[in-house]
Fold this sequence. Notes:
There is one protein chain. The strands form 10 sheets. The protein has a 9-stranded antiparallel sheet with strand order 1-9-10-11-12-19-16-15-14. Strands 2, 3, 4, 5, 6, 13, 17 and 18 form an 8-stranded antiparallel sheet that branches. The chain is of the alpha+beta class. The two termini are 28 Å apart. It contains 18 helices and 35 strands. Helices cover 33% and strands 26% of the residues. The protein is elongated and about 85 Å long. Strand 23 and strand 24 (407-408) form a beta hairpin.
Amino acid sequence: MSYLKFDKNLLINLDQSLTKEMLRTNQAGAYHCTSLVGCNTRKQHGLLVIPVEELGNKPHVLLSSLDETVIQHGAPFNLGIHRYRGGVYSPAGHKYIREFDCEGVPRMTYRVGGVILTKEKIFISRENRILIRYTLVDAHSATTLRFRPFLAFRESNSLCVANEAINRELRPVENGVASALYAGLPTLYMQFSHKVTWVDEPNWYNGIEYSKDLERGVPYCEDLWVPGYFELPIRKGESVIFSAGVSEVSPRSLKKMYETEIASRTPRTSFFNCLKNAAKQFYLRRGDNMYVISGYPWGVVLARNTFMSLPGLTLAIDHRDDYEAIMATALRAMQRFIDTGERSAAIAGIELPDIPLWALWAIQQYAKSAGQARARELYMEAVANLADYVLRGGHPNLFVDESTGLLSTDGHLEPVSWMNSRLGGEPVVRRSGRLVEFNALWYNALMFAAELAEGNASLAGRREVWLAEAEKMKKPFVDTFLNESGYLYDTVDGSYADPSVRPNMAIAIGLDYSPLDRRQRKGVLDIVTRELLTPKGLRTLSPKSYGYRPFYLGSPEEREMAMHNGPARPWLMGFYADAYLRVFGLSGVNYIDRMLIGFEDEMSQGCIGSLSQLYDGNPPFQGRGAVSHATNVAEVLRTLRTLKKFNV
């Protein structure tokens, strides 16, 4: 039995099936994303969405969808489905679906009378090409398949309007056609493994609606160009492969290409395997560089998300080489900023004040996984340089107080932490001055740097400085952040201490080194558990705190206000689990294991096999935002790996 299988009763019920999405990527920035039944519900959905280098690597939807039609005795049965203006669904191809199975590759099974047809989709790794294999499992009479491509050729966050500027010309290629609707965009090659007939029937299909965008209060209606259709006969037991890519392919190679790609896949037969597959989908290779995409379908490469998610996306699934490649790329960008002040064009946010702190945390996780000897060999110089960079005040917005050793930053006008929502250009959550997780990460970084440098004679003097700085800030940290109620202030700016109960204190108690003793950690942990813990991670604000907004709903402005004022984040569960296990040891393992059940339930919800960007802070804890988010997948994977060590 498949771990991810959905039957016809769910699939033909659009109220249920349209809430479930699937995602596939090629580890080079391209992706395929749609609902389970193939009805696009977001403008970012598409069968082939690729980054265009000449346009800043922004993702562009080339092929929106491909409608399949089964023809028997001259009668057509269209398997496609679109939502048109006014909420009308046509054609109603979902009524022919019998099963969707996603253990290996996504496989849809259709039944039309005596015809049973399967459809399997797979992305070619690091190539902008998707393959779809159709197999006629059963048929009692002659069967013909018709394929109608819906073309968009637009940036993924835009919408297409019927126009006369398109290039209507189609160029014949072997077993298919090639189209380039607009100058400056790649040519799309649509080919089959078998000979096909192309029939010109050009039309705009007007008024296609995207229900998720309608719900989000953003533009949601567009027109798509359909130049005609392919047609071919198919025999019982025969398979036909369709290819959509930005280069021409030999049709004779498609079968081997498909089989080779399938052989490399990890079946989604467990919670861990689902997340492992999801983790690899965030990898991005461009030339000699390797990055992490922050999320899909509208993620980009972000410095903070890269360092926060890197250990979970790589080390937790035994991909140490990928960790080293991604870290090398990120550290080069970090060093350029340190040396010249140059911001990275490829990694956004490299200039933010907490980036060195998260980079040091990510290297610490590598040392714990690969061993200190290997970590010293690869990263001792980087660790020493980053620690000294912060200590000497090298960052333009990160300041070390000489008397207390505490860090401060100016976040009055610009967001400086991961709580980075904006409204009217200004931070929604104004975090400035001394931030609790900045200082906790800094204390942990100093101690880790000293630990890694132990026994290194050339670093003996610097090691003593790092230890002295950590010791200097230990008591001021407690005096500044720990309040009479037993939890940690989120920020302290001058004489003002923000009393909001927020999850950043969970980071402070979950780190390997903390200025808090075990009793103080437990006190903070108790409050985090009572006020912030949900089945989907930690709330971004306690329901008891002013301004709590649990639901990520409404207009773009309302959602921005809510983003860090209530909804839960799964990635914070990683630090919560670390803290819990440090306080309770082996006796806490079963508790954390039970808490992960809430995430395993999500494997068949939202974007199947992955975790959404955030979840409502109140029941039923609905997933919202990006359908697949790197830091969430990463930290749940890291927690699973931590539990495995306890259970060995």
